[in-house]
Design brief:
This protein has 122 residues and is mainly alpha-helical. The chain contains seven helices and no strands.
């Protein structure tokens, strides 16, 4: 297998974004695995792979990547929201609620506030 270059990683990342947009999450995961192997600290690659896992209904893998992002960026509202959706889909509603509320507290986007149940509170 040829050595990966920074350009190869960028090309694979962009191709993975396109695959995800085209609803091919498994193809995206394959490309992102190589990118993450080369750059394990990449938050953007982990977030994209977590989204791909979520779309492929690989909830444990999605949860693991979202958790890893939150370990590095505990104030990432999107990662809290996406983790909450993952937990909700896995019928872990109490854990999901905590992350929905954290997402809304960090970023009061309407969809975060609504999911957290804050919209009716005053």
């Amino acid at each position: 297998m040829p050595e990966r270059t920074p350009e190869t990683n960028v090309i694979d990342f962009r191709a993975a974004e396109q695959l995800l947009a085209a609803r091919d999450p498994r193809g995206a995961v394959k490309l992102l695995d190589a990118v993450i192997a080369a750059h394990p600290e990449s938050i953007s690659a982990r977030l994209l792979r977590a989204r791909a896992y979520f779309m492929a209904a690989q909830l444990r893998s999605a949860e693991a990547d979202f958790q890893m992002v939150l370990e590095r960026e505990p104030t990432n509202a999107y990662a809290h929201f996406a983790l909450a959706r993952t937990l909700q889909r896995a019928n872990r509603h109490d854990q999901a609620k905590r992350h929905f509320r954290l997402a809304a507290a960090l970023d009061p986007r309407p969809e975060y506030v609504e999911a957290a149940g804050f919209d009716g509170e005053g």
